[in-house]
Structure formats: C-alpha cells, structure tokens
Write a structure and sequence with these properties.
With about 425 residues, the chain is an alpha/beta fold. Strand 4, helix 5 and strand 5 form a beta-alpha-beta unit.
C-alpha cells in the first residue's frame, strides 16, 4: 500500500505541479486538502482539478469563521501591525491552515504533510512551526527546497508536460495569496523596488484616483474589542469582513506597497490590498484612545510589536503568544462603543467616537470656566514632576562654581545665546 501524504492544495501553479511531482517522483498516495480561509475560489472546480491531476481524495475545509474569530479579531484587538504597515493577512492564516492540515493527516493516518512554500519565504516556517507544534511525529515535504525546478517558468513547463491546466501564464506571473482579510501580489516587475506598480494589479480595490469623488462616512460598533456592526446593523464575523471589503475597496482604501524584512533574512517587496482590515484597525485604535488609560495604551504598544513579530514568524502556538493574548483580553473589557470613519480616495480617517466607558470628560478639559478642576494644583504637580531636572541643574551649577576650570565652558554656553537670531523691540539698548 502506498504511503499517504496530505498536500496543502490550492489548484494554482505550484501545488498543481507538486501534486503530480509527489506521484511521479515519490509514488505517494496524495490527498489534496483545500483550506477555505476566504479565497474566492470555485472549490468544486478545484476539487475536480485535483482529482484529474491524480489526487486520491480531496478535502474542502471551511474555516472562515474560525479564521475571523480566533485569528483576525485576536490580532485586531492586539493592534498587531508588522513593521508599521503590514496587517498580517497571510501570516494570520498560516497557523490555522497548519492546524487543519494536521487534523486531516491524523484522520487519514498520513505519514507526511506537503506544502508549496518556497525555501526563500516566510510561509515554510509558519506552516512547519504549526505542524511541529501540533503533530511533531509527521514528516514535512517541501518540494521547493529539494526538487530540480528552479523557477515558476520551470513549473509552467512541467505542468505542460503532464497536461495540467493553469490560469497563470509567463506574462501574468504574479504570486498571489488571497483570503478573507487580504490579497497580496508579489513577483514579476514588483521584484525591482524601483518599478512603480500599476493599477492593473488591483483585484479588490478601486484605484484611489478613480474612486468616488464623494466621501462616505460609516460607523463601526464594537463590543469588548470585537467589531460586530456596520452603520448600526449587526453582522456575523465573516459577513462583516466581506461587507467592509466591498465598502472600503470601492473607495480605494487598504492598498499598501511595501518592502518588508522576511524572517529568513532577505527583504521582499509586495503590494497588499486589505480594505476591511484597514478600516477596522483605524476604528479600533480610535476607540482605544477613548477608553484606555495612558499607561495601558503605552504598554500595549510594546505588546503589539512583539505580537506582530510572533505572528509574522509563525510562532502562534507558543507559551508567549498565549500570555500576550491573555494580556490583550484584559485590556479589551471596556473597548465597547462606536466609531465613525470617513472613506475617501484611498484614505480612512476616524472622525468621531463614543463609548459608555469613555475616559474623556468635557467638564475637565473645557477651555471655558469649570468647577471641577483647580488649575493651581498644577503648580505643585509641576514642581514635583520637574524636581529631577532642577536637581541636576543645581548640581551642575555647584560643580561649576567650585571648579574654576569650568568657568570658561560656562561662559561659552552663555555666549552661545548671542548666536541666536534675536529681535528685540522696546527697552533700553544694551551694549554687548
């Protein structure tokens, strides 16, 4: 009996070739596993193609709801953004896909899991970290690290040899990853960071310069950090993301073109479209500013940085990630309320927010007369707050007066004031 291997299968160029390669070169019984994280695929057609290519069985696993609730919203509440730009669309999906692959492999009593990630990218680490963390006894097959094919052009030729139908061509050779959260574009002319990407690359978003000339204001409702409504209407998690993708994408919101640092040590350039994610991050950030105190917000930014790095590096199933998520959950207890955002030609701006847990008090911050704040209290506060600064300055004055050698330096500092561009009006003229 042939040994079984579960292949993470998308029906695209790489995994179609890998399926045939596992059969022809290693005589495996290949089980194709299509993990539905929201990519806009015809899964019946994908399954049919896998069987025609040689798979003995095909699994279609719909994990969209788990993707949103257990990964996307967790990252949103953490405020996780990699290198200040990337909303981690691919990175969030990989540990969930790994988990689904492991469950199928255990069900089928397979000896290995195969994936189509290249030896240059991040996904090989993310997939394998998840598999090793959940089922360390399973072997992992990564053809891009071992086979003789060296490029996507080679894969196209291999597919032609075995009559595997493909939608990709040597003219449209972008490597794309799509899920509910985003679609990414890499390769082709994007491999040179000096090449400006063209609007023809967009799949979800209208080009900002072609977006509507009229802005649109929408309201996002949150309950304990989790978004649940748009313009007062409640949505299930998946529908909320899908709806926002359409609303924001129409206005060209969510497009970024970045050079990022891959885990394996090299830089890569990609164009990402993340309409719903961009809106939700902006809304969540605005609401947190309203309800979180200064110290919590400051420390949470440090947590967000580490959280994003762990996610990007595939370290989802780790004790540290569990600990960070526990901290984040505590901070979200009062992140409840509504945020208004204006969408216009590629921009998304929070313009208003409200919450029953708001720490904003108009009676305290008003510039008008109030009865709750004694401004003289600031006198004592400033004296204490600036005491270390004052003590340091006094120490330096004492040293200068005791050490004549420092008198010249002191004069130099005093004379340096004359180098400023000063204009004096009124008073008596003073000779220098």
């Amino acid at each position: 009996m042939k040994k079984k291997v579960v292949l993470a299968y998308s029906g695209g160029l790489d995994t179609s070739v890998i399926l045939k390669w596992l059969q022809m070169e290693h005589d495996f019984d290949v089980i194709a596993a299509c993990i539905d994280v929201g990519q806009k695929d015809d899964f019946e057609a994908v399954a049919k193609k896998a069987l025609q290519t040689g798979a003995s069985k095909v699994y279609i696993a719909d994990v969209k709801e788990a993707f949103v609730k257990e990964f996307l919203f967790e990252g949103l509440m953490a405020g996780a953004v990699y290198e200040e730009d990337y909303l981690l669309g691919t990175a969030f999906a990989r540990p969930l896909i790994a988990k689904a692959l492991v469950e199928i492999a255990l069900k089928e009593d397979a000896v290995a899991i195969a994936h189509g990630a290249t030896g240059k990218g991040n996904d090989q680490v993310r997939f394998e970290a998840g598999i090793k963390g959940l089922a360390p006894h399973l072997d992992i097959i990564a053809p891009w690290r071992t086979w003789s094919l060296k490029s996507r052009e080679d894969c196209i030729d291999y597919a032609a040899k075995y009559h595997i139908p493909l939608s990709v061509t040597k003219k449209d050779i972008y490597s794309r990853d799509e899920n509910l959260w985003h679609i990414s574009h890499e390769g082709g002319e994007l491999e040179s960071p000096w090449n400006e990407h063209t609007k023809a690359i967009y799949k979800w978003c209208t080009s900002p310069d072609e977006a509507p000339d009229q802005s649109e204001t929408i309201t996002i409702g949150f309950n304990q950090g989790v978004p649940y409504s748009i313009n007062g209407e409640a949505y299930d998690p998946v529908s909320l993301i899908e709806t926002l993708n359409q609303m924001a994408g129409k206005h060209g919101v969510g497009i970024i073109d970045i050079v990022e640092n891959r885990l394996v040590g090299m830089k890569s350039r990609g164009v990402y479209e993340t309409p719903a994610g961009t809106v939700l991050y902006e809304a969540h950030k605005a609401l947190e500013k309203l309800v979180l105190d200064r110290q919590t917000m400051s420390f949470k930014k440090q947590i967000a940085l580490k959280y994003s790095e762990l996610t990007y590096d595939g370290q989802w199933f780790t004790p540290l990630m569990d600990a960070l998520q526990a901290f984040v959950a505590t901070t979200q207890k009062n992140v409840t309320g509504n945020v208004k955002l204006k969408l216009f030609k590629g921009s998304c701006q929070a313009v208003a927010s409200e919450s029953p847990y708001s720490l904003y008090r108009e009676d305290y911050v008003t510039f008008s007369e109030d009865e709750v704040y004694n401004q003289y209290d600031a006198h004592g506060f400033i004296n204490l707050f600036t005491l270390p600064i004052k003590l340091k300055a006094l120490m330096e004055e004492d040293l200068a007066s005791k050490n004549q050698s420092e008198i010249g330096n002191k004069k130099d500092k005093e004379l340096s004031v004359s180098t400023l561009n000063l204009q004096v009006y009124g008073g008596e003229e003073i000779a220098v």
